[in-house]
Amino acid sequence: MLISENFTNFTHIFRYTRYIQRHTSSIPMFRSVISVQGRSLVLRGIPRVSPSVLVGYNRNYASWSNGTPIRKQKTKEEIEEELLQEQMKSPHRIVRWGAIARSEKFKKGLTKYMIAAYMVFLFFGYKHIQKLREKELELEELLKKQSEGTLNEYESLRIKEMKGTARTRDLAKLKEYRKLKEESPELETFDGIVLDDHSCNTSNSCILPPRDTMEFFEKKAEEYDSGVNFEEKLIMMGRRRKWLARHCHGDVLEVACGTGRNIKFMDMTKIKSVTFLDASEKMVELANKKFRAKFPNFKNAAFVVGRAEDLVQLASAAPDKTSEDKVVKYDTIIEAFGLCSYHDPVKALNNFAKLLKPDGRIILLEHGRGTWDIVNKVIDDRAEKRLKTWGCRWNLDIGEIIEDSELEIVTEDRTHFGTTWCIVAKRKGDAKKKNEIGFVEKYLRSSVKARIEEFRQVDEVEKSKK
């Protein structure tokens, strides 16, 4: 059979012959005479096969003696490609999407998508940083005016909003100020304008007026623990009481101690002395029994019957002397769910401040209004029933009460949709302790401000040179 008529020189014919011999010597049907006649290559004793098939042959080819055409086995890549194509036609959406994600077309296009997404991220990131910078400059300007004593009410509220400490009534006032600005565009500043206060604790009709609860708790004392146990276990309030007791150290005062539900969580190795106060005599007696049973050898413990509103008089060396230098003072004052039962909770907190030692802390565990309107609606609807059952107004805005007092919040943590308030407070003007300064405030914010101040100084020097 003549298969190489187009070869023009003997060298090419010889190389082609050797290639065929090397790749067909192991197959019986190809063991035939291969010779060169003149300028042509002749294969004798084999079926007529095209040169392209012979040249591309290797050991992975399958063949039959009856002359069936040779068929190549599928490679791993070809099998995977067929499977991919089948999955891309799958009726199941997840399988189909997974196949598309593995396809070469998608992988090539993914790079473009990622670059586009990165560009979008950079754009919005720049805008966000720009807004933060503008906010920082505005805050610095307002704080400067505050130090000069030239702030108006709107600017004071704006400082709270930017610091994240604005309460519900503050946000309501800010909304009114902005509405006023929209109605009067020519109004440049709000100097001399003071809006009416919209305190949630006074304007909300669902918040019932305070009542004298001493007689109520006298009757409730014996069954109080058994009645509240299930509810506190259900919401895991024990963890919050542990948090409260963990802050106790030095001379400790617990106000509204009730039946002594926090006693079992106290670590008396950190406590020098402890005083328990409650308006209900029977509850104080129950607390005394619990304490003596838990810590029979601890001697520096006192149990006092009295109201939180009369705390300064009770702590005075003489009943007629109520100045701060004449009263007993404490390192830690704790209270759990007491503000809701006081006739005047603001006065009670002011008394706490007067009885606090320098660098002392007031630890509050309270229930009040939550962070969601739907939750507040539920507790408002059940407020009257709660007052009759447990003698407390559980829908008060605790943040507003503390803000109206002589205390300043150090840390504030809220759980149970914001209805449980865990607060560490100090007297206004006292400095924070080292362990109370967060990482961001301690390292990042201070370094950024220092860096900005350096830039300002450099700019001022350059301007003075010019």
Describe this structure in words.
GO terms for molecular function: methyltransferase activity. Its main location: mitochondrion. Keywords: Membrane, Methyltransferase, Mitochondrion, Mitochondrion inner membrane, Transferase, Transmembrane, Transmembrane helix. This protein has 466 residues and is of the alpha/beta class. Among the domains are: 78-135, no CATH class; 213-433, Vaccinia Virus protein VP39 (Rossmann fold); 437-465. 49% of the residues lie in helices and 14% in strands. It has helices at residues 10-24, 51-55, 76-88, 93-102, 104-148, 153-163, 168-183, 200-203, 214-234, 237-246, 281-294, 311-315, 345-354, 373-381, 383-390, 398-404, 439-465, and strands at residues 34-37, 40-43, 61-62, 71-72, 250-255, 271-278, 301-305, 330-336, 356-367, 407-415, 420-427. The strands form three sheets. The protein has a seven-stranded mixed sheet with strand order 7-6-5-8-9-11-10, with helices on both faces. Helix 9 (214-234) crosses helix 11. The protein is extended, with a radius of gyration of 42 Å. The N and C termini lie far apart (98 Å). Residues 1-8, 29-40 and 48-65 have low confidence and may be disordered.
Describe the main β-sheet briefly.
7 strands, mixed
In CATH, the homologous superfamily of the domain at 213-433 goes by the name Vaccinia Virus protein VP39
Q: Could you tell me the strand content as a percent range?
A: 5-15%
Order of strands across the widest beta sheet? 7-6-5-8-9-11-10
SSE order: HEEHEEHHHHHHHHEEHEHEHEHHHEEH
The coarse overall form would be extended
Q: Do you know the CATH architecture of the domain at 213-433? A: 3-Layer(aba) Sandwich
- Compute the number of strand runs: 11
Low-pLDDT residue spans = 1-8, 29-40, 48-65
Level of helix content? 40-55%
In round numbers, the mean pLDDT is: 83
> What is the CA-based Rg, rounded?
42 Å
State the CATH class of the domain at 213-433.
Alpha Beta
Spatial separation of the terminal alpha carbons: 98 Å
CATH fold category name of the domain at 213-433: Rossmann fold
